[in-house]
Amino acid sequence: MQLTNRLEQAIRVAAKAHREQTRKGTGVPYITHPFSVMCIAQTVTNDEDTLIACLFHDILEDVPDKYPEQQMRLEFGDNVVSIVKAVTKNDQIDDWHERCKAYLQQLSEVKSKNAIIVACADKIHNLMTTLADYEVQGDEIWKIFSTGKEAQLWWYESVRELIAKRSPQLPLLAQLDNLIAQLQQVVLDE
What we know:
This protein is mainly alpha-helical. Helices cover 67% and strands 0% of the residues. Helix 2 runs antiparallel to helix 3 and helix 8 packs parallel to helix 10 (172-188).
């Protein structure tokens, strides 16, 4: 990955947009997540729009007032926005399970394989941090989620199935499979 002026600008925008957020239950600055997602994605792509979308993937879902879609489109273009929107859950749907199903449907219909890379890298990092937090906190970690570990397992397995269907040769799948196997072990150990 080459750090271009545009990519460096995107890093600054993401850091500013997420500056008041921390990761669930940890107090870790939120920006570590989008930056980590970008680092994971850069192992399989050097596409600048995809890497920027990694940095922005939670902005429209979590902090749209800090960096609105129109500004993102103006400063970074239609392609970045379309990738971000493809991996953004619909916050108008209150029920967690229904919101997840809508996300899966949305991701299954998106034309961009780059959105699949962002989705996979996002799930890898979320699962990595959840499992690391589980090692420290044990079952207490599940209290920060709106659903239990069984539902979390369903979610990751469902996203993995869709990603494998859309991009069966994606090298990130092996890493996701490994993490899901670890989560399966956590769920089965109960």
